[in-house]
Amino acid sequence: MNNALLLLADGFETVEALQTLDVLTRTHRIVTTTASITSSKIVASSIGVKVEAMALLQDISSQNYDFLILPGGKLGVENLGKSPLVLQMIKEFLDHGKDVHAICAAPSILGELGYLDGLPYTCFPGFQKGKGEYRDTGVVVTPHIITGHSMGFTLPFAEAIVAHYLGEEGIKAIKGGVYGK
């Protein structure tokens, strides 16, 4: 069983967070906890959809999770990047050999922290940061970081995460529910 932590900040991109959560949950082998980065479990997405997070980040220990997920959304990423607790959590994961996956504008946080230096990555155009090798493609997979280009690539991003932890068997397990086949 793999344990994932998905961070929610006000202004998060709705599809990127919820579709990733949905796909990972369908595996029945990745347990995903959503955590609000504020003192309230109620978090508003970029289009005003209010979601109740399962936990508060302030109550979470990185030791209980195998990987971290950062959804995009311009305002959501600004809020993630302004949170000392979020930045500390990212550092704890990556500095201890755990994985962090980010989509849309969120890879910019990893770039600003230097974690993309020397690595290929993708993100929403205009959010390239750091000294990594930007690729204009849907998803880029490296050993500890998976990046997604934009909301339109959320399903391939989530599937890349599933494949990374569960291999092709994990992908086969979700195909029926996702594609109706």
Give the topology string: H per helix, E per strand: EHEEEEEHHEHEEEEH
Query: Spatial order of the strands in the main sheet?
Result: 5-2-1-6-7-11-10
Weakly predicted, low-confidence segments: none
Oligomer: single chain
What's the CATH C level? Alpha Beta
Gyration radius (Cα, Å) is: 15 Å
* Global shape: globular
Second rung of CATH, namely the architecture: 3-Layer(aba) Sandwich
Q: Count of DSSP E strands?
A: 11
CATH fold label: Rossmann fold
Give the termini separation.
Answer: 25 Å
Mean model confidence by pLDDT: 97
Written account of the structure:
By secondary structure, this protein is α/β, with parallel strands linked by helices. The protein has a single domain (2-179), classed as Rossmann fold (3-Layer(aba) Sandwich). The protein contains 5 helices and 11 strands, in the order βαβββββααβαββββα. Strands 5-2-1-6-7-11-10 form a 7-stranded mixed β-sheet, with helices on both faces. It has a two-stranded antiparallel ribbon with strand order 3-4. It has a two-stranded parallel ribbon with strand order 8-9. Strand 1, helix 1 (14-26) and strand 2 (30-36) form a beta-alpha-beta unit. Helix 1 (14-26) packs across helix 5. The longest helix is centred in the C-terminal third of the chain and has 26 residues, at 154-179. 45% of the residues are buried. The model has no long low-confidence stretch (mean pLDDT 97).
